[in-house]
Amino acid sequence: MKPILLFILLISFSGYTQVQSVGRETSQFASWDLTREVKSTIKIKEVSGSAYSDENFYDGQIRLTDSVVTVLPVRYNVVLDELEFKKDDKVYALVPQDYAVIKIPYIKKVYTYVNYNAENVSKKGFLAMETSNKNINFYTKDVIVYVPYADASNAYSEPVPSHFKKGEKLLFIGLSDKSIVEMPKKNKDLLKLFPNYEKEITAFLKTNKISLNDEKELLLLVNYINTLY
Hints:
The chain is an alpha+beta fold and 229 residues long. It has helices spanning 3-14, 42-46, 187-192, 198-208, 215-227; strands at 17-22, 35-40, 58-63, 69-77, 82-87, 90-93, 101-104, 109-118, 121-129, 137-141, 144-147, 163-166, 170-174, 180-182.
């Protein structure tokens, strides 16, 4: 998703989502300074399609510190880049902390809140962790695009209502210095990230016929590069 489009989306839907601050909760919520209750208005409901990768809530293991783990029903709002959780039949948006980890075993998803670089722009948000290696890791990010209402193009066509549409998933690689950058689309650009292991990675790419657009093959590649450290 282009940075300008993402900015427009966030501005547009911040008006659609009314948020109410609630004070610090006790016990299991003690480490959360603030949560925001999500109250979607009729406007966002009028947009066809879904702002979620999956609208269902699943039990999620939320870890904001090394020692505090809370289990709550959660889901990921792709458009707003927010993890929503349910408590007492109300839906809240988690106010994330750096390196917070939310594990959802049922759908085999693990989200983490990190700094990353996309299209040469530094960002902060949730990425899905596809590996949990010590040095080199693979991350992905779902994309959902907001398509505004469009009038009929001619007398024989119908107007197109505003809707959400899935975009191309973004792929990232986490490096040994803990920075996270977009996965290169060309082998030569990938090799620039690992100048000390250019020979080994080149051989692996050739032997295994790795495509830098295939998630399963990238998983193999990242796990292999991690073994070189």
